[in-house]
Design a protein that fits this description.
It is a multi-pass membrane protein. This protein has 448 residues and is an all-alpha fold. It is built from 18 helices and two strands. The protein has one domain: Hydantoin permease.
Length: 448
């Protein structure tokens, strides 16, 4: 342990926590609707390739920075590149994480609201009728979603203030296995519906004739988003990792779990969508408007909807822990009392930053910035600008500022892999990853 710095109690605890950070709204909420609007199976195949190749390479890069220095992001970049402005990458990560959590926690509040309503059976009542109108009604009720938003933030603060072992690791070790169990139950139920195989074919049978440049770039962006890359979250988590652990095995486990969840997510959602003749290209509202309609047609639909919302809440919380932890680790200085203060001050500050996002569908719906509501603009800023910039700079930083021998030793420590793997990884992180990120970034800006 470096300078009394807390570490993960076990390797599996680290993997579950890091996978929990990666397996959030990106895999369960965003991937299904992006796949639904971007070609289904073809999108998923391209996403899989990018995740395994480029996502894993960047994940390992962040692991190297954190584990090598055993320090939070700002201090880590200062140690590896003293006397330079590279520490700005840590500041960028903190700012990005605060902004992500500010609107992410709003969606977390929506999930809590829906979960509470699902327990009464009202969400799957056939008399509900128009689920789109219901969704609009709920998110425009600023008192209800505001209270749920605050509850979500408080849960996140209470877990993070407990520290790495007693807070994040303990919670993740309960939530992640529960998430998998619930997912398996939902997938089994979804696959037994009449007409379910049409949804499976849509999700897993690639039709490459519909693939265009936009599909490829969407898949690339989703690969990075779904692994929580580009904001130094994995730098933070790996800084608590013991020197004896294999980074390659840990990264492989995390990527594998992330891909598995993405697969289960599609198999839980698309068979039901197709079985009941609904459209898979509903976009961001797929979870909140289409799925209640699907579950309302099932036997024991309210039970299955409650289970789905519970797993969505677990997935969202485990990601929220990592987003707040990067802020707390940078200010707490391994002091438990300072950690509690940092968690509450940081969490409440992020809640306040998120209030305009929460009100974007209610009393601030007419307040537009550059032609769109505040919530959407913050989402766009982080997902399409700050994350790609952070990911690009990390890919440039690692081979540029860490010498080759140190990179090799850190990457291969605890692993049976040899020089060939290291050389292949170095080529990917030095050349392929930055070019791919820049291509996606320029496309989003409409430059290419």
């Amino acid at each position: 342990m470096s300078d009394g710095r807390e570490q993960w109690k076990s390797k599996i605890g680290f993997i579950l926590a890091a996978a929990g950070s990666a397996i959030g709204l990106g895999a369960v909420w965003k991937l299904p609707y992006v796949a639904g609007t971007s070609g289904g199976g073809a999108f998923f195949l391209i996403f899989l390739v990018f995740t395994l190749l480029l996502g894993t390479s960047l994940l390992l890069a962040e692991f190297i920075i954190g584990r090598k220095t055993q320090k939070p992001p700002i201090q880590a970049y200062k140690e590896l590149a003293p006397g330079t402005l590279w520490y700005g990458l840590g500041i960028l990560g903190i700012i990005s994480s605060c902004l992500i959590l500010s609107f992410y926690s709003v969606v977390g509040g929506w999930i809590i609201t829906y979960f509470v309503r699902s327990l009464t059976g009202s969400l799957t009542d056939p008399a509900t009728g128009d689920y789109g109108a219901l969704f609009d009604s709920i998110i425009s009720n600023h008192w209800e979603v505001g209270a749920a938003h605050l509850v979500f933030i408080i849960i996140t603060i209470l877990i993070v203030q407990g520290g790495i072992q007693k807070g994040i690791e303990r919670a993740s070790s309960i939530m992640m296995p529960s998430l998998f169990i619930i997912f398996i139950i939902l997938v089994i139920r979804s696959l037994t519906l009449d007409g379910a195989m049409e949804g499976v074919a849509f999700f897993l049978q690639p039709d490459l004739s519909n693939v265009d440049g936009e599909t490829i770039l969407f898949a690339l962006g989703q690969a990075f988003f779904s692994l929580s890359l580009g904001v130094s979250i994995m730098v933070t988590y790996s800084s608590y990792l013991g020197k004896q652990e294999s980074l390659v095995r840990s990264a492989s486990s995390i990527v594998g779990l992330s891909v598995l969840i993405a697969l289960l997510s599609g198999l839980a959602i698309f068979p039901g969508v197709f079985a009941f003749g609904l459209e898979p290209n509903e976009g961001p509202s797929l979870i909140f408007t289409v799925l209640p309609a699907v579950f309302s047609e099932m036997a024991f639909g309210s039970v299955f909807l409650s289970l789905f919302l519970l797993l969505l809440l677990f997935a969202t919380l485990t990601s929220a822990f990592s987003l707040l932890e990067i802020v707390v680790s940078s200010t707490a200085k391994n002091n438990p009392k300072r950690r509690r203060i940092a968690a509450w001050v940081g969490g409440i500050s992020i809640f306040l930053i998120g209030v305009p996002s929460n009100l974007s569908y209610g009393i601030l719906s007419d307040w537009h910035i550059f032609g769109d509501i505040f919530f959407n603009q913050v989402d766009f800023l982080v997902s399409n600008i700050l994350l790609p910039i952070g990911a690009f700079l990390i890919a440039v930083f690692v081979p540029l500022k860490i010498n080759r021998q140190d990179l090799k030793e850190e990457l291969l420590r605890g692993s049976k892999l040899g020089t060939g793997f290291f050389q292949a990884w170095l080529i990917v992180i030095r050349y392929i990853t930055p070019i791919a990120i820049m291509a996606a970034f320029l496309n989003v800006l409409g430059i290419w």
